[in-house]
Amino acid sequence: MAEMTVRYWAGAQRAAGLAEETMAASTIGDLRAVLASRPAFDRLARVVTFLVDGQQAGDASSVPAGAVVDVLPPFAGG
Fold first, then answer.
1. Domain presence at residue 78
2. N or C terminus of the chain: which is more exposed, having fewer CB within 10 Å?
3. What is the CATH number of the domain that holds 63?
4. pLDDT digits (tens, 9 = 90+) for 9-48
5. Residue 8's beta-bridge partner residues?
6. Rounded to whole angstroms, how far apart are CA atoms 24 and 26?
């Protein structure tokens, strides 16, 4: 498992209760599962988008050690 910095934005930050934290996970799917296990984040975890070092990442994407993972909620507007 790689240790990473997880940064939360907008509604994800409100649900997480903090702006960022250090976590460990092998893939984005593993990270999503950890977030979904938190009562305040469980529904949001299903719809957030993840960026790994600025690049969009899906559940199968691996996370390198030291990466910065941004957690973005769905945005409205256009």
1. no
2. C
3. 3.10.20.30
4. 999 999 999 999 999 999 999 999 999 999 999 999 999 9
5. 71
6. 7
Q: Which of 36, 66, 33 is nearest to 52 (CA)?
A: 66
Q: pTM of the prediction?
A: 0.92
Mean pLDDT of 4-11: 96
> Tokens representing 55?
């690049």
Q: Is 64 in a helix, a strand, or coil?
A: coil
Q: What is the number of residues in the chain?
A: 78
What is the spatial distance between Cα 62 and Cα 25, in angstroms, rounded to a whole number? 9
**Within the chain, how many helices (H) and strands (E) appear?**
3, 5
